[in-house]
C-alpha cells in the first residue's frame, strides 16, 4: 500500500490530500500541520474587521473532521517537520521519524519582509503580520489600544485590511512604494476610481513612498520614509508573501528566489518528492515566464497536478493567468492575464481597448473593461474590470477566453443571455470593434 505524506494543512495541502484520495483509494494518506488547526483562511481578518463575519475561524473550506471522515486522511496537527532525510524519511521537531513512499510539500509562504531583519529585538509586538490565525489573533488583541495604524503595501492584502480598519473609525495610513495601487494586476487607469474612494474613506494614502525604517520604542513604532518620520500605534506588514524553504535547501534544489524547483509535473529534484502551492514558482501563461504568484487558484491547481502524478507522470501544468477578483472600498475589481504595463515582457506588439458601458438598461452604474490583445493574431491576452456593480463574474468569462486563445472576432461572436434589468442587449464584447484604442 502506497504511503503518501503531505506537509502543510492549508489550501494546497488539503487539496493534495483530497485529490490523492480520489486517485489512490487504498493509499495511506497522512497530513502533517505544525499549527493547532488546518484550513484557516488568511482573508478572515479583513472580513472580520469589515463586519462580514464575527469570528476568525468562522469560514471553513474543509474541516479536519471532514478530511478524516469523508476522505480517510490521517490529519496530524501540531506536527512540525524539521528535515527531509535520506531514504524517504522526515524528521519532526519531536525527533520522531515519519517514512513515506511519496511526499508532497505544501508548506506555503509567510509575510516575511525586510523589516523583520531591521527590528531584530523580539518580540516585535507592534509590527505585525496576519496571515496565520495566531498572527491575526495577536493583531486583534492589540487593536483596542491602537488608534493610529500604518499599513505597508497597497496590494490586495493591504487594501482589504485598510478598508476593514478604516470602517472601525481608526486613523489608517497606507504606504506603497509603487506609483499606483494593485500594480501587479491592474493598469493605472483601472485603479483611478479605487484611489479616489480610498481617500474619500479617510485613509491617508502615500504612493511612490518607500518605507525605509521601522523602529519600535515604548508604546510606538516610528516609521521613516524619504520625506517623513511618524509614530504609529501599530504597523501592519502587507508586502508580498515569500516562502521560507531553508528547511529543504540541503535535500532539494531551490530556485534563486528561494522557491522549490519543480518540473511541470510538480516533481522536485528528488524522484518521490513533489512540491505545490506558494512553495513553488508557476508559469505565467501569457509570457511563458516562471514566476512566484501567491494565489489560492495556483495552490489548488498545482496540488491536483501533483496528486495525479504520484504514481508516474500523467498531468502537466499549463500555468496560470493570475486571475483575481476583489471588492474594495465599494468597487469590484478583477484581472486576468497580461496587463498593458507588462507588455514589455511579451514578445510581440500588443494593443489595448478600454470600454465604459452601463451595466444594464435599468442601471446607471458603469463597468470599465480593459482588453489587451496581441496586435497581429488579435488573440486576447489579458483583461481587467472595475465597477461599483457586482459584475465580477465577467472576469472569469474573460479568463476562459484568454485560456482558450480566443481572438477579438471570436469574442464578438460570443453568445450571452439578455435581460433588461441584468445586462445589455448585445454581448459586452460584440462592441469590441467600436471601442477606442489606447
Ligand atoms: C492576508 C492574506 C489574504 C489572502 N487572500 C487571498 C485571497 O482572497 N485569494 C487568493 O487567491 N489568495 C489570497 N492570499 C494568498 C493565499 O493565501 C496563498 O496563495 C495560499 O494560502 C497558499 O496556500 P498554500 O497551501 O500553498 O500555503 P499556505 O497557506 O502558506 O499554507 C502552508 C501551511 O503549511 C504549514 N507548514 C509550513 N511549514 C511547515 C512544517 N515545517 N511542518 C508542518 N507544517 C508546516 C503552515 O503552518 C501552513 O498551514 C492571501 C494571502 C494573505 C497573506
UniProtKB/TrEMBL annotation:
The keyword Kinase does not apply. It comes from Candidatus Enterococcus moelleringii. It holds the Pfam family Pyr_redox_2. This is NAD(P)/FAD-dependent oxidoreductase. Residues 333-423 form the Pyridine nucleotide-disulphide oxidoreductase dimerisation domain. Belongs to the class-III pyridine nucleotide-disulfide oxidoreductase family. Coiled coil: none annotated. Its cofactor is FAD. Residues 2-299 form the FAD/NAD(P)-binding domain. Keywords: FAD, Flavoprotein, Oxidation. SUPFAM superfamilies: FAD/NAD(P)-binding domain, FAD/NAD-linked reductases, dimerisation (C-terminal) domain. InterPro entries: FAD-bd_OxRdtase (IPR050260), FAD/NAD-bd_sf (IPR036188), FAD/NAD-binding_dom (IPR023753), FAD/NAD-linked_Rdtase_dimer_sf (IPR016156), Pyr_nucl-diS_OxRdtase_dimer (IPR004099). It comes from the Bacteria.
Amino acid at each position: 500500500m502506497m504511503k503518501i505524506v503531505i506537509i502543510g494543512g492549508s489550501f494546497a495541502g488539503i487539496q493534495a490530500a483530497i485529490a490523492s484520495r480520489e486517485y489512490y483509494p487504498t493509499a495511506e494518506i497522512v497530513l502533517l500541520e505544525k499549527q493547532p488547526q488546518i484550513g484557516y483562511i488568511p482573508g478572515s481578518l479583513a472580513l472580520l474587521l469589515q463586519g462580514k463575519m464575527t469570528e476568525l475561524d468562522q469560514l471553513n473550506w474543509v474541516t479536519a473532521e471532514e478530511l478524516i471522515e469523508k476522505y480517510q486522511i490521517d490529519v496530524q496537527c501540531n506536527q512540525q517537520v524539521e528535515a527531509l532525510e535520506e531514504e524517504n524519511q522526515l524528521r519532526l521537531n519531536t525527533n520522531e521519524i515519519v517514512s513515506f513512499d511519496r511526499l508532497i510539500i505544501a508548506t506555503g509562504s509567510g509575510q516575511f519582509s525586510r523589516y523583520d531583519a531591521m527590528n531584530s529585538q523580539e518580540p516585535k509586538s507592534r509590527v505585525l503580520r496576519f496571515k496565520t490565525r495566531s498572527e491575526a489573533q495577536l493583531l486583534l488583541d492589540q487593536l483596542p489600544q491602537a488608534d493610529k495604524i500604518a499599513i505597508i503595501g497597497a496590494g490586495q492584502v493591504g487594501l482589504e485590511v485598510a478598508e476593514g480598519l478604516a470602517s472601525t473609525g481608526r486613523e489608517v495610513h497606507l504606504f506603497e512604494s509603487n506609483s499606483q495601487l494593485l500594480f501587479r494586476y491592474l493598469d493605472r487607469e483601472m485603479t483611478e476610481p479605487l484611489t479616489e474612494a480610498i481617500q474619500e474613506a479617510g485613509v491617508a494614502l502615500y504612493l511612490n513612498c518607500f518605507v525605509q525604517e521601522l523602529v519600535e520604542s515604548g508604546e510606538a513604532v516610528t516609521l521613516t520614509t524619504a520625506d517623513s518620520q511618524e509614530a504609529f500605534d501599530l504597523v501592519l506588514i502587507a508586502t508580498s508573501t515569500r516562502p521560507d524553504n531553508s528547511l529543504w535547501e540541503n535535500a532539494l534544489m531551490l530556485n534563486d528566489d528561494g522557491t522549490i524547483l519543480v518540473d511541470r509535473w510538480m516533481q522536485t529534484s528528488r524522484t518521490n518528492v513533489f512540491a505545490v502551492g506558494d512553495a513553488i514558482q508557476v508559469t505565467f501563461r501569457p509570457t511563458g515566464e516562471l514566476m512566484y504568484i501567491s494565489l489560492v487558484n495556483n495552490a489548488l491547481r498545482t496540488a491536483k497536478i501533483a496528486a495525479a502524478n504520484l504514481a508516474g507522470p500523467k498531468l502537466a501544468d499549463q500555468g496560470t493567468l493570475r486571475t483575481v477578483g476583489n471588492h474594495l472600498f465599494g468597487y469590484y475589481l478583477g484581472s486576468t492575464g497580461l496587463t498593458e504595463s507588462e507588455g514589455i515582457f511579451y514578445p510581440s506588439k500588443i494593443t489595448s481597448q478600454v470600454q465604459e458601458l452601463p451595466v444594464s438598461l435599468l442601471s446607471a452604474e458603469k463597468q470599465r473593461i480593459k482588453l489587451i490583445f496581441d496586435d497581429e493574431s488579435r488573440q486576447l491576452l489579458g483583461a481587467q474590470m472595475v465597477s461599483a456593480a457586482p459584475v465580477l463574474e465577467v472576469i472569469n468569462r474573460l479568463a476562459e477566453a484568454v485560456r482558450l486563445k480566443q481572438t477579438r472576432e471570436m469574442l464578438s461572436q460570443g453568445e450571452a443571455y439578455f435581460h433588461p434589468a441584468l445586462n445589455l442587449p448585445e454581448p459586452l464584447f460584440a462592441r469590441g470593434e467600436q471601442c477606442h484604442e489606447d
